[in-house]
Amino acid sequence: MRSSTETQTSSTDVFKWAIVVLLVAVGVVGNNYFSAESLLYRLIAILVLAGVAGFVALQTAKGKAFFTLAKEAKTEIRRVVWPTRQETIQTTLIVLAVVLFMSLVLWGVDSLLGWIVSSVIG
Fold this sequence. Notes:
Blueprint: H1 4-33, H2 39-58, H3 61-79, H4 85-121
């Protein structure tokens, strides 16, 4: 069962998302309407509208959850143990060798099957 705060948050979120959609629509229509104006001015206007729309979107429950996820992802990236240059080169060479080997195997199987089919047909 929903509490009154969840319903209130939901209704305000719907209003905020409507504002975001309206800002994006104004940006698209305005960019088309002012197509004769300088690209620089249109780009600045689009960036300002996108910034305002992003700010409004971050005020919603899903926006806050996204921001939290982004912060946690940044923390996780710091914990990743990245391979050394030597490990990266070795792994790349192994992948290239396997790809070359498999391409030769598939070419051989294709040639063999092509030869068998041409012998049977003609």
